[in-house]
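Suppose a classmate hands you a notebook page containing two proteins, each written out with its sequence and a corresponding row of structure tokens. How would you begin to make sense of it? This section walks through that situation. The first entry is reproduced here exactly as it would appear on such a page.
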Amino acid sequence: MSNNSERSVHPSKMYLVRSDYQATDHLEGTILIPQGYLCQAQEQVYEMCPSGAGGQRRNRVEQLWVKVLDSGDVLKVDRDVLTEIREDFAYLLEPVSDLHERIMLIQCPKKLALLGSLEPGAKLRVQIHSSGSKAPGVLRYRGPLGSGSSGIHFGVQLQGSAAGKGFTNGTYKGHQFFQCPENCGVFVAVNRIELAMSEDRSRQSIEILSRTADSTSPLFEIGQRVYFQMEDSIQYGEVVFCGILPNKLDHGVFVGIHLENRVGSWDGFFKGAQLCKFPSPEYGILLPVSKVHKVPVVSVQISSGSSFLSRGGSDRKQQSRSLKSRQTDVSQDPESTNVRRQLTKKEQRSCSDAGERPGRSYFNSLEEQAGLARTLSTRLPHSDSSSSVDEKMPSLSSYWSTQSKPPGGEESPSSPQSKHSAEFLKNHNEEEAKLEVNSMVEVKDPPIYGVIRWIGEIKGMTDTVAGLELEEVIAAGTDGTYLGERFFKCAPNKGLFVKLKNCRPDPRFPAHQVRANQVDRCNSIAFAEWASEKVEEDTPPELGEQAKERFTGWKKGIQGNFNSCYLDATLFCLFSFSSVLDTVLLRPKGKNDSNMYGETQELLRSEIVNPLRKHGYVCATKIMTLRKILEAAGKSSGFTSEEKDPEEFLNKLFQVLKVEPLLRIRSGNQKPQDCYFYQLFPERQTGVQIPSVQQLLEWSFVHSRLKFSEAPSCLIIQMPRFGKDFKMFNAILPSSHLDITDLLDDTPRECSICQRLAVVECSKCYEEQDINPGKIKQFCTTCSQQVHRHRQRHCHRPESLQIPEGLLPEEEMELRLFPRQTLDLYAVLCIETSHYVSFVKHGPEDTDWLFFDSMADREGGQNGFNIPCVSPCPEVAPYLQMSAAELQELDHKSIQGSARRLLCDAYMCFYQSPSLSLYK
């Protein structure tokens, strides 16, 4: 009997693609399905093998018909590249756009199950932006966002200092999922939330960031000390890689270790991909996670007044105990005798006295402390959660508490310690006020020196915390992370977290060398040559060659200073060569406007925009003044010191200046919603490698059933990316001209077939490739009837268009030409490795493009200054003029120079209407 195939319908199952796979489609050709994509089984294909002995037949499953949830394609895929997962897990992972994070999450089934079962009211910590830290919030909604969506999103109401930093009031695309104050809500995927620390101790057993053996957090952190068995010896090292190997999902998690001894043989590469670096392959080894064990780190308090946080610390049931009692617990381990032998009598005496004499260090020197910590950590390899040593470790919270008191009661007011404390407290507020990020500090007794890299609050701690980058490596140091959360970056074992009040200015340097206030420094005589003048008269933007000559060169544009690049680049995009938003600068102050309105408008108009247009340069002082105003304007903090997202800056600036919403967008039959800019959320289209903004905008509007209620004079579009970490596409072409005619309500549109007046629109036909491919489909009555007679289109439901009043009947408009509503691209904001730059069009020619970087160079060290630069970049013009067909043949890796930054790093695109900008 000849071979044949039979199809059998089976219950739907969900799968994760375990390695990159190339599927074949008879229309699209070869389609790449990346590792981490989600698939839903449609039906299985059985291949009938020849009859075996006894006439029995054996069935063998070769392939599955699956629907790829990320692209919508229905393809035939080999079964052995698919890993079956729970259906509820698949819906949780679907909104997670970072494929690597999907793979890491599926390795934590307990974590997924826990988060997927959360009910409204649960207290969370949510990551609002991909590059930011987590903020407190309360879960208000869990479920899909829309009737046609299956992915589970989490609607969270922000609380505390994060209130007002969101982007919704519980509404998403016209639908109300929960209620909260304006800009106090966010919708995020499961990878952006974690359960907050609960006041109920019974809930701590399922804490997501628990450091117990049942934790569902990542197995090892970068920089964590580990050990493993090698033949007859125990080897130690630090984790430099922990994760899934490229295209080896089914092999599980592997750990790359930087060894203390030269016994390795791995150079950090796996199949051509570099996972980490080693000074020599002899220091590297790659092992399965099952063979690697954590080294318990003993948290040693260097000084009772310093309150350090070690890498291995976590909240535990036992409070801090004396080192003497800990030695008793350690003695239960056979290896502990070696530890005790290595302690000198002097060290043992210091250790025993430490629990009785407050205010005294456990050790006479940092070297002794580091030596003991290293000895204990290397001699205690039993790192299971059941280890008695681990259970008896003091909690970090005890190290953050106030200094312990003598057994007899409170310290005598006349004691030397209290006198010293009184003297310290007297000057504490003044000294703490001087300390900020990049201040050089010491933490006393014994002195440790470093630079403050981060200042803020940490959950569970009442005092302000400072993250230090130390001059020297210490055993208890980190790489800028604490409890699995990164606050800054530094070399391994050089990061330390302390109370800010325990930091003092570094006495080795004169006080005048501490970094001065940035505004005062820019206004000083020493930097007078970098100042920019005030220009009162209204200055319209100049275009063409004269504008190019005025702006091109060093010390041109806006001078950057202290995390200001996001603001510098955004302002340069908005105002340098466009007047579309000049109404913001010119609207007279009304009786209901506050003094802050007038102050902000005057600063923006006469000290930033006008000088920029007239002289091509604005100094950092003016920008810092604007940042101070924005910080004082509301609950948002960090405008003078932290790097913000451009959309956060625009929202705050427009709110202060009471700018009318730039966009009015309607979803379905809902009322129009007002907004300042639009974030693209397109459905990824199969076979499109480098889309244009025109395509992305149409995809996003069609699939979300959105329409512009009126034509905008200024359209600011956010690309489908989140900060510097995630991009949906490797490259996006900013369309030079944006045709929004088919995206407008109440506008005459022509039939896609006969060019007569269209009366209906069909979203289902949008996917059709044989009718005006890649375009929105609208038809007159006759063409709609003919098109939808086809049996494959019987299920389509065309929707009636809003026809402007006063137009002639459809049959009388045979020869009518309908005007097109178009917008012109005038600026692009880009981000690469946390640094924002901008491309701006300065004239009518296709090659009239300038590139601006507010921090292109720097003069001086810590107290130096940045040098901005503006340079021509006509080389981007050929790319901007490419057709859709040419784009698909373009390899994004071949794009070089400025064009690469424009296409691969685009964050926001700015469009204006040449006609409407005169009236709106």
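The notebook's second entry, a different protein, reads as follows.
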Amino acid sequence: FFMGLAQELSSNLPSHHFEVQVYLMLEAGIFDVGVILHLKSLVGKMARTSILMAMEDFYAVHRNYTTKLVLHIRDSNGDNMRAASQAVDLLQNYYVRAIIGPQKSSEATFVSDIGNNSQVPVISFTATNPTLSSADVPYFLRATLSDAAQVNSLAALIKAYGWKEVVPIYEDTDYGRGIIPYLVDALQEFGASMPYRSAISRSANSDQVEKELYKLMTMPTRVYIVHMSSAFSFGSTLFTKAKELGMMSGAYAWILTDGIANVVDSLSPSVLDAMDGALGVRFHVPKSKELDDFTKRWNARYRQDNLDDPPLQLSIFGLWGYDTIWALAQAAEKVSMDNATFQKQQDIKNSTCLGTLGISTMSIGHKLLDAILQRKFRGLSGDFDLRSRQLQSSIFQIINVVRREPKGIGFWTAKHGIIQNLNQNGSEHTYLNSGPNLTQVVWPGEVSTVPKGWQIPTNGKKLRVGVQTSGYPELMKVEMDPLTNAIIATGYAIDVFEEVLKRLPYAIPYEYVAFHNVKGVSHGSYDDFVYQVNLGVYQIAVGDITIRHNRTSYADFTLPYTESGIAMIVPVKDGTTKGTWIFLKPLTTDLWFGSIVFFIFTGAVIWLLERRIDNTELTGSISRQLGIAIFFPFFADRERVESILSRLVIIVWALVLLVITSSYTANLSSMLTVQQLQPTVTDVHELLEKGEYVGYTNGSYLGDLLEQIGFDRRKIKAYNPDDFDDALYEGSKNGGIAAVIEEVPCIKIFLSKYCKGYTMIGPIYKSEGFGFVS
């Protein structure tokens, strides 16, 4: 495509009949270089002055050099075709050995391909589009930064202020679109997103810009990244219109990429006034005495060369242009020392073939390219090193436009993120710990409060939240304001929902819509309520809505916000009978048997021990000795024991007797004072076997569940929760119910009201708990 295009362009050049000898030696010491700029633009005028001063300064210092660059400056007028035409002319008629420029990324796409086919290095210090790759076009060098280099600094600002959404506003060109994929990736690393992308045509007029801004005002996002080239006047129009529409206020945040931030010093006072409060990132230029001296001379020279133009501030593009000339002049001297010749191998007459444009049979283009890549020095812009075929930088300056003046408020480095200061060596000594570590920022509207990044749109729709009155007002209660007819929802479910909204980094307008008529009568079951979300009646539904499998087929649920499970509410009864013989209740069979055995065992052991030492008090007839062995534990103080072992046994027995007595006393006291409450039903299968009546909340899915379990439909009764107490009190045999099947959270609310007389059995079945529907 480019071959054919260049042929067409060169065929339209003025006809010049000339012949080139087989070995044409260029005039000794002359090194022709083409320069293609948009000379009517700010950057073009700035670069022209910088380049001419670089020529003068370089050869004033290097008087002994045998070569001298001869610049052939051409005006592209911002047109891609014209830039390509000028490149062909420079190669065909002036045999330039290198081309500086062009200015725009779209122009560089054309010119770099022409230079690559001609084996002539093309060096641009303003083409920043990341899609321009030296891998595809090896003779193209970028003496500037790729736009992709700044996306991490932009993302760091977004992250530091906690914004989750951002809208890029960019010119609808290759330059404008080029940064977007890289910016998306950088934002996604910490969860931020682009809900909308605003692309503005280069041909857009003021009315179209205003229309796009009105469109942005209808969206909730209030953080904008503006990516425009300095040659595109839309940037000025954008901010002027934004201020007229009230978008330069405290609710908005504007961030400039380096396309505008690099030349913001040279914008008109009216545009700077409209930009007041905007942030921006741009390449950091280290201060030096040489830079200060050059800036003073440059200002004087620019005013001299442009008498009719207002003063212009030198930007990084002018410094890169200056350093590019120094790098190319050094490389030209090195190549010249190798006595390279620039040749033609055939007679050319009105040649339009790219293969004959400036081809060096001794590979001067390749040698010149290698020489440029080897140049590394400290220039006015900082370290100038093209070994990676483009400049590299790890430091960006963050600026804040305040009162018509860009003010440096901090820096971003690849190593430490956002910092406030740099020391003299450029290393960091202030670090980002929490929040942006910047000098106080003045936001649009001259406020110091950080914009939320989100606002209710001027004509935005409210989120419709469906609500339904629950049988448990503690969970959900829905009322209508008699004055405004507005729906008022309260309860634990509403508290959870509103707390979630408060914790979002942006505000969401919403309104409650009731699932019942003016008389408070529900329009259907909970299944019907959930289905309204699927029908689009509500955007979400909030309430005590159980997450069920059948409902997930037509609606999405949040995670549960309550504990899960289905249990029973059953009455309790006192399981003890207080009568005359209650003192025997603590004496269980095991206790009786153990006590008797221990009594006999203790007496027998003591009798045997005392018999060994012939204790006379334990002697006598067999019947007497048997009686002593049996009754000794009861009357241990009657007969005197002499054996030490016997006394130890008596001590152990006394301790055991004390434990038994204490345990008995405690149990008996408990029986006399504390109710021994026992549930009337312990298992759901017991209800099935006895054919008891059971109840559930009216409108709940639990009625169907009970049928699935095996209950007769005639034994299942629906109640309002307020009627559960009466129904349980009457009992199944008296027209009431024996148990209530309910969700665990609801049971706990019921038991908090009726703490006496009822208990919870279960959970008897699993459930997913309550959630919100979306």
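A careful reader of the second entry would note: Residues 1-27, 340-352, 358-362, 424-434 have pLDDT under 50 and may be disordered.
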